[in-house]
Amino acid sequence: MAQGALQTLGGPVHIHDALNGVSQVIPRGPVASQEAIKQLGTNGGGYFNANGADPFENPTGLTNFLSIVLILCIPVGLTYTFGTMVGSVRQGAAILGVMAILFGGWLTIASVAEHQSNPAVAAAGMTHQPTGNMEGKEVRFGDTSSALYATASTQTSTGSVNSAEDSYTPMGGFAVLTGMMLGEVSPGGVGSGLYTILLFAIITVFIGGLMVGRTPEYLGKKIQAREVKLAALGVLVMPVVVLILTAIAVSVHAGRIGTLNAGPHAFSEILYAFTSVTNNNGSAFAGLSANTPFYNVIETFGLLLGRFAIMVPVLALAGALAAKQTVAASAGTFRTDQPMFVGLLVGVVLIVGALTFFPAVSLGPIVEQLSHGKFF
After folding, report:
1. 3-state secondary structure (DSSP) of residue 226
2. pTM given for the model
3. Domain map of the chain by residue range?
């Protein structure tokens, strides 16, 4: 509010411009309080259609920075909660380290991509180009701050935006799209990011156990066939749902007519839509007209499966581990609070994401990047 965000119960303002004979209705409401709630709870729904790009919601660089802090603070803070609950803050710190590495990597991709000149402008032969891709961005934020906001909102389940991601460079779009494809674990939503990365942790200790020929353990609990199957099921639900629904949408006329672009960018818009809804994110490549009966129905399946089809194996896994006796650590125990585990867990998250989504991403932003600025 101090920075200029609206906060009133006074209702809309009706303005009549006598000089031009034009009347206008300016909506108002309790915007500042809703803005804080939407960011802190990683909800993302904006009071205005322009969301965090609207000056009534996000008026200054300071409010933009505060929004990013609010988006990240609870998912990041839950790693400390996890550490205290299992009796070792180092375990939570290891998980936080994985989140930070992944977040930093994707932020670098997005920032570098958006700091480049628009490839379509470069292809047109313009010699005097602005620094950074400012199409679809607010000048009060700039390209780098917009990339930071987009990375934070897509690597959590927030989905709020302060710029038009459909106007990002191909690799900028790649960053925000693939950040969700990792399962939104860096740091993910309130609670959902933590339990999803713990699924990856179970798979990681299983792989580590195979390397040394020892029954894997995590937090003193033996990881056996049932636990690995449940963890693998939870990890694979999202990619399977996204890829199947995307395949259906691009195969039928009702799905293809929703795109406002053509070629690989159109495919990216459809792929992004299902990646977003299945990951409980809500952001969009706004070039897709998704308010149609086809998309309203098919995306509902993505919403439901993305939530409950992942929660069920997670709860089953939690019950299975809770029923097991704690095993004392020994000289052969694979430590899960050490840098080696952090590196291995980062590798597992990246490999699973690459194996499941690389072919699809290759048809979208990667092909568009290789087109050297061609319009679609």
Report:
1. helix
2. 0.93
3. 74-115+166-370
